[in-house]
Amino acid sequence: MPGVTTSDSPAAAPLAITNVTLDGVKVTVRCAAGVIAAIGSDVVAQPGDEVLDGGGMAIMPGLVNAHTHAAMTLLRGYGDDLPLMEWLQTRIWPAEASLTADDVYWGTRLAIIEMLRSGTTHFVDMYWHAPAVARAVADSGIRATVSSVFIDGGDAADGQSQRPRVLDELDQIDAAGPLVHPAVGPHAVYTVSPPSLAWLAEVADERQIPIHIHLSETEGEVADCVAAHRMRPPALLESVGMLGARTLCAHGNWLDDAELDLLATRGTTVATCPVSNLKLANGKTFDIVEGMRRGVPVGLGTDGAASNNSLDLLNDVKILALLHKHLASDPAVLPAAEALAVASGAASPLLAGHTMAPGDPADVILVRTDTPEMTPSPLPEALVYAASGSMVDTAVVGGRVVMRNREVPGTDEVMAEVRTRSDRLRKH
Ligand SMILES: [Zn+2]
Q1: C-alpha of residue 214 to centroid of ligand 1, in Å
Q2: Which domain holds residue 57?
Q3: Is the pTM of this model over 0.90?
């Protein structure tokens, strides 16, 4: 995201990843001060470097989960297979009504472990108790863009009363650490009044931070918006000054071609969440092929664990690619390298996907290539069509090793906390 600078990364000892494969060549990658400092077959570890042996593995930029509600791990598998509104009204919303900040902290910690173990090094979140999300991010060492969900139920006066809380939470998120980036999080056009949307757009502009909102997820959302405002959702966002290059819209399932052109013109990113769309039977999914053809920046999100139910982008990128080949009756659309670029955040300036070059952020993953599943295949195809997140061995964020040998510190404690808290929430 804008503001994802590497100069503010936490101090980590210089790191040398030796004997690792990049584009079929054995190299050493040195990371220092949060960035890739040097890379090549002639690069060697320096005295004082932490050395990581990358034998049997390939190195690549970490993946970017462009839309999730991380703490919904607490509600994973709760009310699966119910119709959308019944699921929300009888399971999700009652449970969320009794969520505490500590619940959100532990649920987010679990989600982060799962994301690191499947290759995500940066996620974009929207949920309740966002300062607790920010705390979990800081304690885990992953990178995240954190937004507090904002809902006023269409009542501008209610929205007005929430403004001090929003500003306070943004300050808390901002202060949580160098890998934590604040964003505003209006839930959607059907849950937030236009005056509140306009105010949040102003706040985002003043602070130069992203806006994270659900957009045109269901056909009903579009019809209701037209009935209430005589505008479709993108036009409503445009009317309140909310479409721009710092705006990230989740879903975009029911966008028409003119709306794709509008988003392309504004530089607004769409985070497609194909697995959530399929599971909740949204009837349509974002037409990423047409969107990219028209110049819309795009990313890939899992959505929350209650509607996916995993947070494994390597699983979802396969479904993304296959779904669009199927829909287009054309196996040539969204080839593996392109699909992987989308999952890496490289198809959106806002998501700040990067390459493997000196000066790029040291947000990288090591993927096992010496497994039966990965043999023998070129890497992008193996990762998109054959791999799952379980091929990811090591994750480095801001030059700091946050997972090695698939082990994330504290995992047992986090799982125990989530089990206890989840049992309590599901009794409501
Ligand atoms: Zn969502």
Answers
A1: 6
A2: 15-61+360-411
A3: yes
pLDDT in tens, 358-395: 999 999 999 999 999 999 988 999 999 999 999 999 99
C-alpha 126 to ligand 1 mean position (Å): 7
238 and 107 within one domain: yes
Whether residue 43 is found in the same domain as residue 79: no
- Least Cα distance to 78 among 288, 306, 300 occurs for 306
CA pair distance 166, 196, nearest whole angstrom: 11
Tally of CA atoms within 13 A in the half-sphere of 399 that contains its CB? 28
Clarify whether residues 238 and 380 are in a common domain.
no
- C-alpha of residue 391 to centroid of ligand 1, in Å: 26
pLDDT digit string (tens) for 279-328?
A: 999 999 999 999 999 999 999 999 999 999 999 999 999 999 999 999 99
Radius of gyration from C-alpha coordinates of the chain: 21
If we measure between CA atoms, which residue out of 266, 275, 277 comes closest to residue 350? 266
Render pLDDT for 44-87 as a digit per residue (tens, 0 to 9).
999 999 999 999 999 999 999 999 999 999 999 999 999 888 98
Ion ligand 1 nearby residues (CB, 5 A): 303
| d(CA 340, ligand 1 centre) in Å | 21
